[in-house]
Amino acid sequence: MKIIVFCCDWCAYPGADLAGILRLEYPAEVRIIKVMCSGRVDPVLVLEALKRGIDGVMVTGCHPGECHYLHGNIEAERRVELLRYIFGYSGIDPRRVRVEWIAANEGEKFAHVTREFTREIEEAGAITPDEMNAAKILQNVFSSERMRLVLGASRRAIELEGVDREWYRGVMERTAREEVLREKILDELRKSGSLSAVEIAERIGEPPADVFWNLIAMKRRGIVVDMGVVDRSMRFGIEEGA
What we know:
This is Hydrogenase iron-sulfur subunit. InterPro entries: MvhD/FlpD, WH-like_DNA-bd_sf, WH_DNA-bd_sf. The protein is of the alpha/beta class. It folds into 2 domains: 3-127, 3-Layer(aba) Sandwich (Rossmann fold); 144-238, Arc Repressor Mutant, subunit A (Orthogonal Bundle). It has 10 helices and 7 strands. Helix 9 crosses helix 10.
């Protein structure tokens, strides 16, 4: 198993260091990457690791209310929750990503959660080629303008503007699902040149109506183009460079 643990510089990394000082055992498969704040761990980084064959990624940071950057750990938690949700929709085992809070004096907890996470990943098994391909698609999703906007506005919407947390979580999940569907559509169009909504739906296993309305939305944004009607079916193609 290959496992990466992102540790924030202020709490989780000193906790990992303390585990070493106390000679507490944790799995040799674990590789630690120090970051200034857990909030700096972008979903794209997690997906890059999975795309490259890493079997599991854990993000560790300060306990809620103790973040040196005020809210970075809460941002990290929202991102990991969204990743776990969309993993289930995209064919990646949700157990492959996890978030944990570890204080500087919690060396024993660091050793415990890394052992526990390693057992979970062993149960999930080595990451598969299909999962790595799904991670590649999700990288495009989380790099999209819509997802960057929705994720970036989450703290302001929830904490400053008073938007209901569960409602906004639903917005993020719906946006992520739509972006995944659009990436699947684009992938099929790149491979085949031009297709109808029904043909795409059959290939990716999605309802034709959902595929059609997303194609229309993508056409309005100039991502796909109308290739005309063939055998009573509107066909769509892809703009070069999309």
